[in-house]
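ok so i was messing around last nite and threw this chain in just to see what happens. nothing serious, just curious
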Amino acid sequence: MNCKPLVFFLLVYTCCLFTSCKEETKTVDLSKAETATVEEFLAAFPETATPFRYADSVLTQKQYDSLRITNKIVTQFVPDSIFAGTFGKGAKPRFYPYAKMYNEDKAQYLIANAIDPKKKASFLLIFDKKNKFLAGMPLLVLDAQSNTEQQVSFDRNAKSIFKGITRKNADESVSQGQTAYAFDEATASFALVMTQPLDNKAPDLINPIDTFSRKQKYTADYGTGKNNLVSIRDGRRENKLTFFIHIDKDNGECTGELKGEATLKSANLAEYRVGGDPCVLEFKFSGNSVTLTEVEGCGSKRDLRCSFNGVYARKKAPAVKKSSKK
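result:
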């Protein structure tokens, strides 16, 4: 039997198959292309692990045009209004992918640096696990002050976003300020949860659910001082409670935060339990307090040296101002 024709056929087939595979895996040059798929756009951002931190010095480093993403591709997937507040309407900064991370719900957090002749900024762009754009915001805008440094950090689950600034003063002292945000995928919005001015004042805690309705029996604010808060508001249904917890213990050495929805198990007992989240938290209400008990560890929501456990006293509701009659 003559095997040469068969061998020749196999060689030709293998070459064709190899060539076909190379064509299928060919990547698009986003620095020159005018269109791309969302998968190609997302793949341009290098993945990084959380927690993650970076400073405004990345905006002063050399940017390589071979890594740039054209404006037409960026605005194909991200509304230009996200950038207009920083650069102005109609501006066309040059975009460079910097990092990509995932939160516990598989949402994709992209960091894109944008540069034009007058400004340099870094933006957070969030896409869901189905590659749909959800929201965006500026993280860093480089200033002209040589004595300041801006930093951004993401916690282990990329749920909390911290924007900080450090300033070296003329008297050699150092001042620090910080703003904290939480992203709510259900509403595709950022909630400001804490702000600390650039001075020595204690941080002001902002309650992201403060304006929610409080018609149910135990809806109120509980806690001690300004920075230990258990806020309870009405849930989506009668057997649900919306809550926001922020703790600050041991003079700031241990902090924690959790926002979610608990289910009423009885008249005075509610439980936070969500599939995929190891944290299980119990709320036991009395007339003037709520007792929190971690049924399962909530270490991913707080520092490991403390817990949410404790009895939190009910705070007096603020007086409702009555409108004066003319």
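not much to say yet. Residues 42 and 110 are 8 Å apart (CA to CA).
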